Amino acid sequence: MDKGKVLGVGGVFFRSKNPASLGEWYAKHLGLKIESWGETHGTSFSPLDMPAGSFTVWSAFEKSTEYFGSPQQGYMINLIVDDLDAALANVAAGGAEVLEGSEDDDFGRFGWFVDPDGNRVELWQPPEPDQKDA
């Protein structure tokens, strides 16, 4: 296939009962620079702002997966953070449910929380480039 292939993820779009309020929550507790684009509120991430060694994953899970939490949740967003412990403390201070346990592996550190809309969100702190190669 020479033409018409996917080059990357262009966006993550989802419904919210109050997009402006949810955007404000993410801005306050995770530092997203939220903009209003008509009926939607969001942010954009430049690949140049991503930490070295990070990447975007597209992955289809089995319908029966428990990884997303509630069986009604059809997707889960993974957000890259610079400090997992601080990010989890920030969302906890904002009233989010921080889920027990975190994972450390070759790909970095992972933790989870449930946002004000009830979405389970994964936070990922990639390893430092020299740690991953060691």
- Total strands: the figure is 7
Model regions low in confidence, pLDDT < 50 over at least 5 residues: none
Percent helix range: 10-25%
Q: Strand portion, in percent?
A: 15-25%
Overall, the morphology is globular
Total count of helical runs of at least 4 residues: 3
Structural class per helix/strand content?
alpha+beta
Order of helices and strands: HEEEHEEEEH
Write down the Rg: 16 Å
* Separation of the first and last Cα atoms: 36 Å
**What number is the mean pLDDT?**
90
Main beta-sheet annotation = 5 strands, mixed
What does this structure look like?
It is a single chain. With 134 residues, the protein is an alpha+beta fold. The protein contains 3 helices and 7 strands; from the N terminus they run H-E-E-E-H-E-E-E-E-H. The strands form 2 sheets. Strands 3, 4, 5, 6 and 7 form a 5-stranded mixed beta sheet that branches. The chain has a two-stranded antiparallel sheet with strand order 1-2. Strand 5 (103-105) and strand 6 form a beta hairpin.
